[in-house]
Amino acid sequence: MKHMGRIMMIVLALLLLLSCMGCSQLLDAVEDEELRGYTEAMLDAIVENDLDAGYALIDDVCTKAEFRSLLTALRQLFGNADTYELEPLAIYRNRSIQDGETVDSVQASYMMTVGTERYVIDVATHSTCENLAAFYVTPYEKTDYYRTGELGAMEGANALQWVMLLSNLISIALVVFALIDACRRKIQRKPLWIVLILLALVTVGITLGATRLNFNFNLAWLLGYSALILYGGGTTVFRVMLPLGAILYFILRKQLVVKPAPEVVGEPIPEEQAPPPSEPEWGSNQNGTDAE
């Protein structure tokens, strides 16, 4: 308990660092207008069955015969629809060196809605290509944008996914009980403990995909809660929220409580004072003999 104050300051500093890292992941990317224009022009060419206009947008990476086969397959996939809606999903920018040249590339994903069907359009372009460098169409249910097991996406979730989601209530209850208990009791460093109980909520997660296995650690109040998320592309995310501040508080609660001073019963007994030394009588010396 002697160094508990320093330990708590270190924990709070780590939480602040994690919050800064989490905020950087929450920043929205600015949509690339040029790439969106290429994407809309390509989709317009497909729904209008315009072979020349579509091929002109991707002639750097395929032949006209290859694009003719692609056009036929996509028109069949879209059911020969003549209208669509397009919404941005994600965008990635990258800069690399190739053959001593700086190459800037942009990749983007869009949600395309055709009637009642949805598709994910993945496109890319780079500085060495005049138009599109890649164009992919995937049914929405077969991509990682389609998922079950999280808030707002529980349709079709299994029993384990519901259990994981409901387990968040236990974590929230621990935080509430710890906060109420800390406020009612007289404990050491009460303000710091209240902050720790509220902010020390972390999530530990495992992401398992076809070609990847990742572990992550984030602040729960910024990123995530307990969940088992299954993605259409085959990726699985297992994430657990841990109220570390509340758990630590309950472990150390007995040591944190300030013990009351012992009560004094009755009147305090005064200490006995020794009598002052008596002065020698007149006419006697220190040896106790009479003076002549």
In short:
This protein has 292 residues and is α+β, with helices and mostly antiparallel strands.
What does this structure look like?
The protein has helices at residues 4-26, 33-47, 51-56, 64-77, 159-166, 168-184, 190-199, 244-256; strands spanning 85-98, 101-114, 117-126, 134-139, 147-148, 201-208, 213-219, 227-231, 236-243. It has eight helices and nine strands. A hairpin with a 2-residue loop joins strand 2 (101-114) and strand 3. Helix 1 (4-26) packs parallel to helix 7 (190-199), helix 6 packs parallel to helix 8 and helix 7 (190-199) packs antiparallel against helix 8 (244-256). The protein is α+β, with helices and mostly antiparallel strands.
Write the layout of secondary structure elements.
Elements: H1 4-26, H2 33-47, H3 51-56, H4 64-77, E1 85-98, E2 101-114, E3 117-126, E4 134-139, E5 147-148, H5 159-166, H6 168-184, H7 190-199, E6 201-208, E7 213-219, E8 227-231, E9 236-243, H8 244-256
| Residues in helix, % | 25-40%
Strand order of the largest sheet: 5-8-9-6-7
Number of H- or I-type helical stretches: 8
Q: What is the number of beta strands?
A: 9
Radius of gyration, taken over Cα atoms and rounded to an integer in Å: 37 Å
Oligomeric state of shown chains: single chain
Strand content: 25-35%
SS-based structural class?
alpha+beta
Low-confidence runs = 21-30
**Could you say which overall geometry the principal axes of the C-alpha atoms support?**
elongated
On the 0 to 100 scale, the average pLDDT is 79
Give the termini separation: 75 Å
Elements, N to C (H/E):
HHHHEEEEEHHHEEEEH
Biggest sheet overview = 5 strands, antiparallel
